[in-house]
């Protein structure tokens, strides 16, 4: 082996290059896993008191050593710790740096409690009292608070259900009022036909108001009563600075006392927070909560892109190889396809905006949704146009991979099928496509890998920071391709670079990046599994 390396040093260089590449990939993935998965582990809560009497309560987030050269030539070393102190409504910031030399006392108080809230981030403090209705608890507050939290969450679910029923009740009236408003501001508002329509809609509006008035009043009263009950369940909590704050339990996602928790309890909490990350919607400017809408949007967009790109890519490759007369024109087409693979993705995004959204979507709005204009339906960004844009982006990859698969089919098999009386299409369908399927799936794998991570084209064709509804729901027609959507790649960009609270957003960036990698790997493994099954099938059928 050593003699072989001496005879050909390039083998050693290529091996070294492969090793370095794999090491870099392993380092990046390892860093993402450590920083991302460690985010959900409940850390100890530290109470520190400084020389000036200032007290902080929070989690140790990071440590830093600062070395400074003194005038006498000696090196002075100082240690600093970064604390996540939360309590943004008190301090206006989530993190603070503390120098070790200024700390006069530190401890881990067992009663220190972490409150994960819907707004203003975490709150770190000590529970002093609990009020549920007219009942006040000052002893065993933590135990009673856990029961009260369940009651508050049940009330919140009832409030959401009542609010949804109220919205559904007023939805027809809102649509009618919107149609009236559009008619009144239209250029044809003075024409007799339009005036009569306005009068008819106004009568319908009055009748609809009378029909829903009683039910609306009853729902509104129930909603008001539930909100009043929710306001009567709260905790009095004392911060490290000594200030006391009132925290509504309906605004608390969960609370826990990490300094008292056993390892098993921490493991349970870890998986609870991990499950919330995968299944819940984001909150606090996407820096907390979950990413389920982004997961759903990413997977659905990739599936729609695959459905669009594979048929067109396969048909193009079949035409170029089996039907088109080989010559200068076909060579130019192949050259153009290869060059398209190197076009920056943002260019495809601009094309998608101009062609799909403005031209196609705008034309469809004029034909089928003219009653809703000037508000666009399909003439604006949505998951359909984003998927088609990425389909164009990945089309060259599928065409080239499919052509390679078609060229790998033995020429004798094709000629034998034609000699036996099969038409060209029968030969393609029975001989070429089955044997080229592994190549087609290879193109699909490459398309998924590139399409799932693209962000630039999506930013102008339909992706948003926060989508209130998913593209699929229980409302007819169930699949809403015109809706905007969330995407994991854009979520990483938004949280990492656009968040108002960058320090708090760092762990979410790593976690979301890890999740995106895992989704791409899963989709690729699924396609590879299908490709290998097909290879075995057609290899066995060849004997």
Summarize this entry quickly:
By secondary structure, the chain is of the alpha+beta class. Helices cover 60% and strands 15% of the residues. The longest helix is centred in the first third of the chain and has 45 residues, at 141-185.
Produce the secondary structure layout.
Blueprint: H1 2-7, H2 9-37, E1 45-50, E2 55-69, E3 75-84, H3 88-91, E4 95-99, E5 103-107, E6 113-117, E7 122-132, E8 135-137, H4 141-185, H5 192-231, E9 233-238, E10 244-248, E11 252-256, H6 263-279, E12 282-283, E13 288-289, H7 292-323, H8 328-340, H9 345-368, H10 383-407, H11 411-419, H12 424-453, H13 488-497, H14 502-541
Antiparallel strand pairs: 1-2, 1-5, 2-3, 3-4, 6-7, 6-11, 7-8, 7-9, 9-10, 12-13
Helix pairs in contact: 2-14, 4-5, 7-10, 7-12, 8-10, 9-10, 10-12, 11-12, 12-14, 13-14
Characterization of the model:
The protein has three domains: 37-134 and 234-279, no CATH class; 138-231, no CATH class; 292-469 and 488-541, Orthogonal Bundle (MetI-like fold), CATH 1.10.3720.10. The protein has 14 helices and 13 strands. The strands form three sheets. Strands 6, 7, 8, 9, 10 and 11 form a six-stranded antiparallel β-sheet that branches. A five-stranded antiparallel β-sheet has the order 4-3-2-1-5, with no helix packed on it. Strands 12-13 form a two-stranded antiparallel ribbon. It has 543 residues and is an alpha+beta fold. The longest helix has 45 residues, at 141-185.
């Amino acid at each position: 082996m050593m003699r072989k390396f001496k005879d050909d040093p390039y083998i050693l260089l290529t091996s070294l290059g492969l090793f370095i590449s794999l090491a870099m990939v392993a380092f990046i993935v390892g860093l993402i896993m450590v920083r991302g998965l460690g985010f959900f582990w409940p850390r100890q809560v530290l109470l520190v008191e400084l020389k000036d009497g200032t007290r902080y309560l929070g989690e140790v987030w990071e440590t830093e050593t600062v070395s400074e050269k003194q005038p006498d030539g000696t090196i002075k070393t100082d240690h600093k710790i970064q604390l996540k102190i939360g309590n943004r409504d008190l301090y206006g910031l989530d993190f603070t740096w503390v120098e070790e030399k200024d700390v006069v006392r530190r401890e881990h108080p067992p009663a220190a409690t972490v409150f994960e809230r819907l707004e203003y981030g975490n709150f770190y403090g000590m529970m002093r009292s609990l009020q549920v209705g007219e009942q006040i608890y000052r002893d065993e507050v933590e135990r009673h608070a856990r029961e009260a939290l369940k009651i508050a969450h049940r009330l919140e679910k009832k409030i959401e259900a009542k609010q949804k029923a109220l919205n559904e009740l007023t939805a027809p009236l809102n649509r009618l009022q919107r149609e009236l408003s559009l008619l009144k501001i239209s250029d044809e508002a003075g024409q007799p036909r339009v005036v009569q329509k306005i009068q008819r809609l106004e009568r319908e509006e009055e009748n609809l108001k009378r029909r829903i008035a009683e039910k609306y009043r009853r729902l509104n009263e129930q909603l008001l009563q539930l909100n009043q009950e929710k306001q009567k369940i709260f905790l009095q909590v004392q911060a490290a600075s000594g200030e006391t704050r009132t925290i509504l339990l309906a605004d608390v996602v969960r609370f826990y006392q990490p300094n008292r928790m056993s390892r098993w309890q921490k493991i349970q909490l870890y998986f609870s927070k991990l499950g919330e990350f995968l299944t819940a919607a984001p909150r606090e400017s996407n820096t907390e909560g979950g990413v389920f809408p982004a997961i759903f949007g990413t997977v659905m967009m990739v599936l729609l892109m695959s459905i669009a790109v594979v048929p067109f890519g396969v048909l193009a490759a079949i035409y170029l190889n089996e039907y088109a007369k080989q010559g200068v024109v076909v060579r130019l087409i192949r050259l153009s396809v290869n060059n398209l693979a190197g076009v920056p993705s943002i260019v495809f995004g601009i094309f998608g905006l101009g062609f799909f959204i403005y031209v196609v979507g705008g034309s469809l709005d004029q034909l089928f949704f003219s009653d809703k204009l000037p508000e666009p339906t399909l003439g604006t960004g949505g998951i359909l146009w984003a998927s088609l844009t990425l389909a164009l982006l990945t089309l060259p990859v599928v065409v080239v991979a499919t052509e390679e698969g078609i060229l790998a089919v033995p020429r004798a098999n094709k000629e034998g099928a034609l000699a036996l009386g099969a038409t060209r299409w029968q030969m393609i369908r029975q001989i070429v496509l089955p044997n080229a399927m592994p190549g087609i799936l290879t193109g699909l794998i490459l398309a998924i890998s590139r399409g799932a991570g693209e962000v630039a084209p999506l930013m102008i064709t339909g992706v948003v920071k926060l989508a209130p509804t998913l593209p699929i729901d229980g409302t007819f027609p169930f699949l809403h391709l015109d809706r905007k959507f969330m995407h994991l790649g854009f979520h990483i960009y938004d949280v990492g670079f656009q968040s108002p609270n960058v320090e708090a957003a760092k762990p979410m960036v790593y976690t979301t990046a890890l999740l995106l990698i895992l989704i791409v790997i899963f989709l690729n493994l699924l396609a590879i599994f299908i490709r290998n099954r097909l290879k075995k099938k057609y290899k066995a059928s060849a004997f």
